[in-house]
Amino acid sequence: MSNTGSNLDRLRRGNLAAVLRIVHRAQQVSRAQITASTGLYRSTVGALVTELESLGLVIEGEPEATNRVGRPSPVVRPAPEVVALAVNPEVDAITVGVVGLGARVEHRVRLPVSSPATVERTVGLVAELMSAGDSGPLEGRRVVGVGVAVPGLVRAADGLVRWAPHLGWRDVPIAALLEEAVGVPAAADNDASLGALAEHLFGVGQGVDDLVYVNGGPSGIGGGVIAGGRPLRGAGGYAGEIGHNRPGVRGSEDRLSDSGALEDEVSRARLLAVLGLTEADEPTLARALLSSRDDAVRGELDRQRAILGTALSNAANVLNPSLIVLGGFLATILASDPERLAALVASQTLPPAAEDLRLDAAALAEDRLLIGAAELVFAPLLADPAAGPRR
């Protein structure tokens, strides 16, 4: 019996996935560019775009006017109604976003909490948003699923939160709880791993195959690694926990914690304290730090910068990235004196590994973790659009 039909179907589905991924990554792209990227015939690309449009995953529109001779190629964009809910529970707030294909953060709300976000409050908040339906930010939207960026160790196989110490979560099946509560697929992963993925796909790390992403948030410091163009996960999905490393602190006067762990020395809470603040979102904290002329604030930034430089050089020596991306309050430490931090890293990194190494701030700013969480949700759809949700 011939299996030609099934082979052709697999080929078609694979081509559909390739085209949707291109549209998703590019955010808008012409048919001609898709043809050039895939190597498929123009007629084949046209048929694939038409099928994706019928599935409600892309829209095709008139091209922008150009000076080129000939008929311009139609432009393909992600369908705006297809979205994911992205959630980031933290010790000081729960942030929820509506994220569309193409990394469009259409709605984001940060709800401060007086104590670390509980599982019940996180699930309840998502359920409230879903139940609001057409009267809220989900009006006219098709929710593909819910993605959660968790500041802790998350088992890659099933999204079980093994340990999020700052939240007090241990062995929490957050994905399963959300699926039961809202009736759509859910997935969870470590927040910094998702930040690394988002910056690699849509941010400052686009086109970079080897990068280290280090996230500084209310819960501490986490890391994610892209190696050879792919996420480096480790045996259980726990790779990248740079915040629990203990970089050498050169002077005893610079060490403020008993543990000596990076996230206890380089600390958002310590920066808030020296500013006299009890709570602040990322932009507010950045403005306060960068505009301050207080010697105590500058001294604390200098102290944290020196310890961070040692930690980053350790990562550079072990992983040999071409780019280190800093997110959250770590991006502000970088911005406060980029030349000094770069010099500190270079001075402690093996010279050949330091030659082409650069440091940069996360380009996606506050949206980076939400975009990464949405990628968890979109991954099955991008892998097989024909099997995805219908209108």
Automatic annotation (TrEMBL):
SUPFAM superfamilies assigned: Actin-like ATPase domain, Winged helix' DNA-binding domain
A matching Pfam family: ROK
GO molecular function per UniProt: kinase activity
Signal sequence residues: none
Domain of life according to the entry: Bacteria
Entry keyword annotation includes Kinase: yes
UniProt keyword list: Kinase, Transferase
Family from the record: Belongs to the ROK (NagC/XylR) family.
Protein known as: Sugar kinase
Organism: Naasia aerilata
